[in-house]
Structure formats: structure tokens, C-alpha cells
Predict the structure.
Amino acid sequence: MEKDAKLKDIRDSLHDLAQPLAAVTGMVDLLLLECDETSPIFEEVRMISEQLQKVLEIVTEIRRLAREPVSQPPRLEVLHD
């Protein structure tokens, strides 16, 4: 039972992390839409958006792993750039 409680704590923490991360990602994406491609900060904002998306994908994958039954060894999917 201790493993189940730890997994629930991990899932809850990942959920708590994903919420503000998704909000920030949305704000950065809106900024990217409003930013002209000739702007000096366009590439930096685009890179921030891409990196935030990668972090969200990692959080999603960890959440998926935490939902798998404990009796099965977790299978890690490789995230590609």
C-alpha cells in the first residue's frame, strides 16, 4: 500500500505542476502569435514555447508511467525532438 500512496502523491504533484505550466505555455504561445517575426525577441519567444512544450510532454509521460499498475515494469517512451 505504501507504493500506491507514493504513486498517488507523485500523480497529484505532477497534476499540480502541469496546471501552471500549461498556463504559462498558453501565455507564451499568445505572445508568440502577437510577436512579429522580424522582432528581435521572436526567436527567443519561439524557443521558450518549444522548451515549455517539451516539459509538458515529459510531465505527461511521467503521469502515464505513474498510472501503470505497480506489478508491471514501466515502459519509458523516448521523446524525440
